[in-house]
Amino acid sequence: MKQLALDIGLAPVPTLDNFVAVGNEAVVDHLRLWCGNPTRSPVPTFLWGESGSGKTHLLRAVREALREHSAPVGWMDATTFDPPDFDERWEAVLLDDVHLYTAAQQANAFNWFVNAQSPAHGPARWVLATADRPPADLLLREDLRTRLGWGHVHHLKALGEAERRSVLRRAADERGVFLGDEVMDFMLHRFSRDLSSLMLLLERLDGYALRTQRAITIPLIKSMLEDE
Hints:
Layout: H1 25-35, E1 45-48, H2 55-68, E2 73-76, E3 92-95, H3 103-117, E4 126-131, H4 142-148, E5 152-155, H5 161-175, H6 181-190, H7 195-212, H8 218-227
Parallel strand pairs: 1-4, 1-5, 2-3, 3-4
Helix pairs in contact: 1-2, 5-7
């Protein structure tokens, strides 16, 4: 069945606090310790995992945590087609989904990495990168691939369906919302399976059900989608 994608632009800002860390507690602790430490270690960190494991959420969460401390960062993902030159003011370099980078983006990422680790002025900067596979399996230029893999490498474990169901049920209970088994099955199999999208779907369903004074059912979900 075709999965339905939600407008991620309406999702809450990703943070380390709203990331469901089941199975990935050590990764979140590592990122939290780094973001909260003014004498941060410049050793690079690499996160890898399948789609829906939360890689981009964590990268954006780190960016938000640093912004709260007025720390500028360099950010690049596969949609960054005209990345800027390395900026000495950056306190970190964040590289998302590096497995999707074009040759030009790889060249830019390599330049950022080298400048971050060996800057012309000041201490070395942290590099945090993500991909869907470990560094050894990346089909990237060799000088970039080896640099991405020399520091801390963490495998992000995606939540299984039973865990997603449990998290979704708990979130619904906290809202005072009843989700029948058929509704849960529909949400888990017909929509994007990553947890942030499911939480957004639940939030929108709760609001729509309140406005229409109806219980959350499969017809209500279809009605909400038709009205938007």
